[in-house]
Design goal:
196 residues, five-stranded parallel beta sheet, 9 helices, 5 strands, globular
């Protein structure tokens, strides 16, 4: 990977999911620690780990980052994982702050029926009733906040994620440049106490 990337070391290397094959996390994390000690990676992190796994990793080598799903709809990481990271100086890079499109200005309920059968969202609980209706009501409740700031709903959703104590950053995807224009303001939008 280093040769292909043309770099001497990878700045951040993360496990994407906990191992489900039975390898103890301590064994896998020991390998990450060794890569850091050898200078092949600068920081070792994880994605989709719970607080118990984070603690088990930390006992061997510092967990530099956690990448959890986190949005106005999916707040589970705020219960244990984000506070754990905050208390251990571990960065938190959230993914899916717009909940895979649900928290965007243009998403419509009818769109779910148009999802391709292989699109995971066609089976995801957040995109099925009664959750779909509730999620779109939440999205619509963001519209007045967006109007007050001259922003989009997408930007408000991202800004909410970024202002959460302990969150370092957010991973936001786009399929076209115009989509970036719709949410880029989320990086600098300052929500008020009333907004929150």
């Amino acid at each position: 990977s280093l040769r292909r990337l043309g770099v001497e070391r990878i700045d951040l290397y993360q496990f994407h999911w906990p191992d489900m094959a039975g390898t103890p996390i301590e064994e896998s994390w020991e390998t990450m620690a060794r890569l850091a000690e050898e200078g092949k990676i600068r920081f070792a992190g994880v994605s989709n780990f719970n607080a118990e796994l984070l603690e088990r990793c930390e006992s061997n080598h510092h967990v530099a980052s956690l990448q959890p799903p986190f949005s106005l709809i999916s707040r589970a990481a705020a219960g244990q994982e984000i506070p754990w990271c905050r208390s251990h100086a571990t960065g938190v890079i959230c993914y899916s702050p717009m909940q895979s499109g649900l928290l965007t200005d243009s998403f419509k309920a009818q769109r779910v029926a148009e999802f391709a059968s292989e699109d995971w969202r066609s089976r995801a609980p957040e995109f099925q009733e009664p959750n779909l209706r509730k999620n779109l009501e939440l999205r619509d409740a963001l519209r007045p906040i967006a109007q007050r700031h001259g922003a989009t709903v997408s930007s408000v959703a991202i800004a909410w994620t970024l202002c959460w104590p302990g969150v370092t950053g957010a991973i936001v995807g786009a399929r076209a440049p115009a989509q970036v224009d719709g949410w880029i303001q989320g990086a600098s939008l300052q929500l008020t106490e009333e907004d929150l």
